[in-house]
Structures are given as structure tokens and as C-alpha cells.
Amino acid sequence: MNSNELKKNFYRKIFKLGLPIIIQNLLSAAVSSADVIMLNYVGQDAISAVSLASQYASVLFMVFYGLGTGVTMLCAQYYGKGDYHAIELVEGIALRFSLICSLLFAGLALIIPRQLMCIFTNDTALITIGASYLRSMSVAYLCWGVIEIYLSVLRSVGRVTICTILNMITFGLNVLLNATFIFGLFGAPKLGAMGVALATSISRLVELIACLLVSYRSKDVKLRFRHLFVRNKMLFQDFVRLSLPAMANDVVWGLAFSMYAVIIGHLGTDAVAANSFVTVVRNFGTILCFGIANAGTILIGNTLGENKLKKARVEAKHLMRLTVLSGILGGLIVLAASPIVLTYAKESLSPTSMHYLKYMLLINTYYITGTAVNTTLIAGIFRAGGDSRFGLICDTIDMWVYAVPMGFLAAFVFKLPVLWVYFILCTDEFVKWPWVLKRYKSEKWLKNITRDDLFESKEHAG
């Protein structure tokens, strides 16, 4: 096969893998936007409270996303190698970690929701609304841990279509239930912000049941909780060495973004409300680049598992070109959506919030390109070859030594205007470009991380 055919074949595979993932991301963003649209009729406080409370869930999402990409990192390569038994054990190891995290987050949300909200804001009204939201979300957190790991395993072996179908059912139900509980349809009580949380929890429970049904009908990739107790020392060590840095990387990144919300949350409800709309629009803008990054991780991981390092190098170059294009396109999507969002937001936002919203959207038209490149390299290409530690170090320094301290200084020491604080926070992606691109060119990520001797001797405790 010549280079032209290899290129076409790669783009064909990326499209086949990426399209269902992009649809999933689109559905997820659509649900978030539906929450904001419906809460817009409840009031600015409801929008702001749910936006801030959602930052707690975003940290948990980063835990699951990190564990999921860690699962994909190992399972994609073992799938390329054709070792399904190793895939089952990786699933069991990941479930151990995800269930512990789910129980912790659900317990805190159920027992001390007001204290959690106090981290993000000092506004009493927002704390009260957000606390009821968090308490109702606790069931969703429990289900989420199992769902994300199983779907990550399915995606890593190319079963992306079934993942998309499950997400379509869940997100469709979520939107319907949102409308039901927010507006009191079909005789249901009007619950406002708490209705969003209740709708999400019910939807996640239904999705978990659907995952169990898919597992029951699957011939090779099953959701078996007995794998939680099967131990293999070498595979456990590989998971800890490769996957946990990926999880820690995403948690570090997610916590930093939550700190951004803390900073904005203490700048007033006008800033929070504007940022709520911006977050939704940005989510739509990053759908394409995140989908391409996820598909690239799976495809390059499969290739590395087959021990075709030269082919993986070429695929990474093609993926980078797609990434830059997707980042530019994402920025154009934000730019095109801005007039529509500004027109709609007039219904509920104050003039000050509208001023913030206009310029925050403008900043995000170029910020998405920085996000696209770093996401594809750190969470895509590097992790496909097991290089997860670099991303952890890079993001920790970038966000906790640079971005978060700079944001706090700008907001609370120098007391800069809200838009200047937001602009400074949105420089984080570009600061790390030189180091990330240098790592890519070094090709230290280009590795086959599978083992040939996993089951040659008796499985040891892990």
C-alpha cells in the first residue's frame, strides 16, 4: 500500500471511529445547552447556581475521562494484539478505581452539599439552589463510574456505534425529563434547578441498565463485576504506571478549571451568568477536535499494539493536520453562534452580563485552537503510546504554577476588570505549546506497551 492509499485509509478509519464519538459529544453539549435554555425561563440565579454546581461534577468527569483514556490506552493496544483476556482484566482494574471515586463524590454531594457550594461562591441564594442540585445528583455519580469504564472498553475495540446509540437514548430521555421537572409537565412538580439534577440521575440509571443489557448480548466485551476481584500483578502495575498518571492529569486539569470557576464565581453573578452561556458555546466548538483526539487514540493505539511503529508515526502526522483544521473550525463555530447566543441571552441576562458575554465569546474563538492541539497531543497521540506522565507534569506546571495563581492575582490582588481576568485565564493553552510540540517531535511516545508474558505463569495479586 503506497503513502497515498495509507493516508486515505487513515482518514476513512478516523471518520468511521470519530463520527459516532462526535455525535456523542454533540448530544452531551446539546443536553448542557438544553439545561441553560430551560433554566433561562427560571431565572439568572438558577443558571448561575447550576453552572457552579456543575463544576463539582466536572472534576468527577475528569476522573472518569482520565480512567477512560487510561483504559483506552491499554485496551486499544491489546485489541490490536488480539488479547481479549487482558482487556477484561483492565476493565476490572479500572472499575475498582472508578467505583471508589463514585462513592466518595456521591457521599460528599449527599452529606455536605452546602459546604461544597461555598467553595465556588459566597452568594447565599446560589448556595441554596446549588446544594439541592448536588444532593439530587448523587445517584447519577454512582451510575456514571460504571458506565464510563464500560463505554471506554467498547470504544477501544471499535464498538463506537453502540456507545452512540446508548448516549442518544440517555440524552433524549434527559432532555425530556428536564422539561418535565423544570416546567412541571404531565402533572410533575415544578422543581427548577433540582429538576435538572433529578432528570440526570434517572437518565444515568437507565443508561446503566442499558449497558448491562448490551453486555448480556455481547459475545466478547462484557461488563462483568467479577473482574473486580481477578488479579494480575503485571497488568495492575502497567495500569498504575500508565493509566493513573492520565487520570491524575485530567483531575489536575479539571480542578484548575474549577478554580477558574471559583475565581469567576467571586467576581459576581453577572460574570458567572455570562460564563454559563460561554461554557455551553465552547463545548459545541470543541466537539470536533475532542472527537478526533479520541478516535486518534484508539486508531494509533491499535497500530502500536500491532507493533507497526512506522505506520503509527505517519498516522500521528495526519492526525495533527486534522486537529489544526478542527480547532480553526471550532473557533468559526463560536464566532457564527455568537449573534444567536447574544440575542437569546437578552431575555435573562443583565446589561453587564451581556457585555461580559460578548467579549468572552470573542476570546473563545481563538482559545479553542489552543485546546484542540494540546488535547490531541496530550490526551490523544501521547496516551496512545502510553506516554501519560508528560501530560501530568506539563498541565500541573502550566495550570497550577502559571494560570491559577495569575488568575487569583489578577482578580483579588490587582483587582483587574472581569474581562482582563478572563483573558489571562484563557492564555493557559498557548503557554504550554512549545513544550508539547517539542515532546511530539521527540517521538518518546512511540511505543508498544503490551506484554507477551501476562498469562504464562499463575496470576499474582495486584
% residues in beta strands: under 5%
Q: Fraction of residues in helices?
A: over 70%
Number of helices: 16
Separation of termini? 43 Å
- SSE run: HHHHHHHHHHHHHHHH
User: Main sheet, how many strands, which sense, barrel?
Assistant: none
Number of domains: 1
**How many β strands by DSSP?**
0
Structural class: mainly alpha
Radius of gyration: 22 Å
Shape: globular
List the uncertain runs: 457-462
Mean pLDDT over the full residue set: 86
Characterise the protein shown here.
- This protein has one domain.
- The chain contains 16 helices and no strands.
- It has helices spanning 3-39, 44-81, 84-111, 113-120, 124-156, 160-183, 193-217, 233-265, 269-285, 287-305, 309-345, 351-384, 389-413, 418-425, 428-431, 433-442.
- Helix 1 crosses helix 10 (287-305), helix 2 (44-81) packs parallel to helix 5 (124-156) and helix 3 (84-111) packs antiparallel against helix 5.
- The longest helix has 38 residues, at 44-81.
- The radius of gyration is 22 Å and the shape is globular.
Write the layout of secondary structure elements.
Elements: H1 3-39, H2 44-81, H3 84-111, H4 113-120, H5 124-156, H6 160-183, H7 193-217, H8 233-265, H9 269-285, H10 287-305, H11 309-345, H12 351-384, H13 389-413, H14 418-425, H15 428-431, H16 433-442
Helix pairs in contact: 1-6, 1-9, 1-10, 2-3, 2-5, 2-8, 2-9, 2-10, 2-12, 3-5, 4-5, 5-7, 6-7, 8-13, 9-11, 9-12, 10-11, 10-12, 11-12, 12-14, 12-16, 13-14
